[in-house]
Specification:
Radius of gyration: 21 Å
Strand content: 15-25%
Number of helices: 10
Structural class: alpha/beta
Shape: globular
Number of strands: 22
Length: 390
Amino acid sequence: MILSNGYVYTKDFRFAPNSRILVNGERITKVKENFTSCCNKGCGCATSGEVVDLKGLLVIPGLIDVHFHGSVGYDMMDGTEESLDAIAKYQAKSGITAICPATMTMPEKDIVKACENVRDYKVKEDGADVVGIYMEGPFISPKKVGAQNPEYVHKPDVDFFRRCNKASGNKIKIMAIAPEEEGALAAIKELSGEVLPSIAHTVTAYDVAKKAIANGAKHLTHLYNAMPGLAHRDPGPIAAAADAQWCEAEIICDGIHIHPSAVRAAFRMFGEDKMLLISDSMMAVGLEDGEYELGGQKVFVKNRVATLASGTIAGSATNLYDCMKTAHLKMGLPLETVVRCASYNPARSIKVLDDYGTIEEGKVASLLVIDRELNLKGVLLRGKWLFKNF
């Protein structure tokens, strides 16, 4: 297949006009910028095969959501093939072609079951690739549980993590942890070669957060949420991460979790190279308002706002593509930046950049065709059109 006459998002985070992408099977075999005609010197810039005229539309990598819980009435913690099928199908048709679903703070047996389910899961033709697991809980602060179930909060435990990771086939990519909890700093240091520890659901002070980052916790879970705010005399984990030589941060740009000015401030503090867009979506995404469940607790969704009975925000009801769209169109972040933070940066963070995150030779041919208003015009999933409306 030859995708021709499009603005292709390049590996150096810009749009190259009149570009051509060659796809063979599930992989990209050639990307040619500013294409005018074939040089006929065996360069591979033209082949026989279907030619698709992109009509001047934009082509970006398929998005990667490294932190979300469910979709269309299903949750990662269901631990069933049916659930992952439904979740992966919804995500793919929404432009999220690789996913790293998250566990919840629940009993170990339930986390193990969910991990085993991912280990054994076979991706279906119309579903996103399941590229890892985000272990959110149970190693969190009982003072900042958010929508996690306080009944199952557990002190940081290296063996607990390793049992879950073994059950997953070593697919856990990120582990949420509150660094102020007993044993947390030692666990971060010991496990940092096996997983990316992430400062999360925490009341940690600046100095403890600095130690955690030095020990390997070079990631912040849903920045601003379930952590102390940035105060000028008690700056907490946000300032510790911003001060660090390297510490990346996730952010939810659904227009509900964080005010647009705070989103823009985060990008100025951390820089676009260290920011990851996530959705943190729960099972209500893709469905109507109503009553749902997250981590064994009831969640009520109204006008895209998901809350527990207490009023605590319980994840989002917005998928990553729509978060990216909001970040650009309503929060004012540059298009090149939001695409990077929803594709390349997540792929780098969970170490799947060899296959995903950019449009380059050898990468999986999962691509999105969009217009300047970020309307999704087509999804190419592993070299086959999931849909094409242009």
